[in-house]
Write a structure and sequence with these properties.
Layout (H helix, E strand, L loop, with lengths): L9 H8 L1 H8 L4 E4 L18 H11 L5 E4 L5 H4 L7 H8 L10 H13 L5 H17 L13 H13 L1
Parallel strand pairs: 1-2
């Protein structure tokens, strides 16, 4: 298998594997990365979880009421590229409900794929606006909407300052 196969029951997944996610979501964690896994009990089409509307929309958004950013694992990883999903893995990941797509094939190709998705009615402008708003709100909550001066002289020290600004 190029995707890790998780064959646990729904009961076990709910009580054990999801437990840390539920705890973090209840503490308002800001983001969650969806890995490329094959969990047949959650997606009978055996899509990678990162491309699964059931996992992202139904489980994370609806059942667990997760409001933060949902980020794919790297889309250039073999587990998901071997899946060979239709016109574009990036479009499939977006349609599934991901907000941010990591390591797409190419940025320009992804943009073109999303444009075509809008033109073909596969995604809506509203879908894009919801994702962009969520990303902008996350940036704002981290204090990234204000200009910050960064020094290249001591990047470690500068990063510590940025982290302190974000915690205020």
């Amino acid at each position: 298998h190029s995707l890790p196969l998780i064959q646990h029951s729904a009961e076990r997944l709910d009580s054990i594997e999801l437990y840390p996610f539920i705890q973090l979501i209840n503490k308002n964690i800001g983001a969650c990365m969806v890995g490329h896994l094959n969990i047949p009990v959650w997606d009978w089409e055996e899509k990678p979880t990162s491309l699964s509307p059931f996992v992202i929309r139904n489980l994370l958004r609806e059942k667990l009421n997760f409001q933060g950013l949902i980020i794919t694992d790297a889309l250039n990883m073999r587990g998901v590229t071997d899946y060979g999903h239709g016109p574009s893995i990036e479009l499939a990941a977006f349609q599934a409900g991901n907000d941010m797509l990591l390591f797409p094939g190419t940025v320009s190709g992804t943009i073109q794929s999303l444009k075509e998705g809008v033109m073909n009615g596969e995604i809506t402008e509203r879908d894009i606006n919801v994702r962009v708003k969520r990303i902008l709100l996350a940036k704002h909550s981290m204090g990234l909407s204000k200009p910050q001066k960064l020094s290249t002289v001591d990047p470690g020290k500068q990063m510590a300052q940025v982290i302190r600004i974000q915690r205020k």
